[in-house]
């Protein structure tokens, strides 16, 4: 990483009595596991006096792609916005689409989506904690975390046939129902995960090096968290008691309201954000357990007569109604006749409020698809959190925010 002298005009950052300032490029190669992002750091010795986040290295164009794909096809794109917990993105997208179309999904679909959303939350938190620990030299916790993520991948694969980008949700339901094997895998995960969680806790909670590198570092106050529009664990670690699962319930969360608590802290530092994520995983496990043991029976897709959902293959092959509907949806381009409206829908994902804003023009494709990603908001607060800290604190603060670069350049 090249060091270059800063211009004299920038010396006002810390006062004219300081003679030397340097610029350090952190990235744009992969800094640890935080993918392709760049930080332009202005240093006085080893102290960061200014930090400028620089985005745009993935050139994804996710939002523009939404204008050229229908409401089902677009899930292959949202999968890749946060590739750590992609199924949560799918659920959030179709939550907004169904809000636009006025579709009420079936009880069984609500429960399955809820379980998948919480598995995605645990998977995301595991990577965040494992990678943050790895950045600070704790390799073992990283391996323990990724072992559990493999178990979640197995569950996702059983449901959808794909491990990483499942593309499993559909307008009004799911690509397919889940079977007994999937339910058994979820129950097995509920039984085995607490031991792995306890192992990670024992490795990190009282680890002297980990504590020294995270406590009192990157402090964000409650007022600052609110003013910066932070959400999720970043906001709750600063004392902001807000969780869309409680405040604006969706899916089956209103029915499972008593199964989980909103985890908050007040310190607002890197260690508090770590602890909030650790406790949130246990609460997610409680939701999964309650949902899997109270799973309703019935269909996972809304009634085919509403002409909104893709018919089942057996209906396509064996009934004229199913064949006609499939033909109209795909061959004639006569997709959903949407209202000419604007709608915003949001879910509480692992990193915070993931929202989609759709402008519909009556066709089967969005006229405009806008994303409100949590990582974009949280990356913007990084300069505030890091100024005055040492350069060795950069990985600690960055890891505690869990920045997913695909959400930055949309």
UniProtKB/TrEMBL annotation:
Location (main, coarse): membrane
Every NADH-quinone oxidoreductase subunit D domain range: 135-410
Key words, A-Z: Cell membrane, Membrane, NAD, Oxidoreductase, Quinone, Translocase, Transport, Ubiquinone
GO molecular function: NAD binding; NADH dehydrogenase (quinone) (non-electrogenic) activity; quinone binding
One Gene Ontology term, aspect cellular component: plasma membrane
Matches recorded under HAMAP family: NDH1_NuoD
Family: Belongs to the complex I 49 kDa subunit family.
Protein purpose: NDH-1 shuttles electrons from NADH, via FMN and iron-sulfur (Fe-S) centers, to quinones in the respiratory chain. The immediate electron acceptor for the enzyme in this species is believed to be ubiquinone. Couples the redox reaction to proton translocation (for every two electrons transferred, four hydrogen ions are translocated across the cytoplasmic membrane), and thus conserves the redox energy in a proton gradient.
Full protein name: NADH-quinone oxidoreductase subunit D
Organism per entry: Thermogemmata fonticola
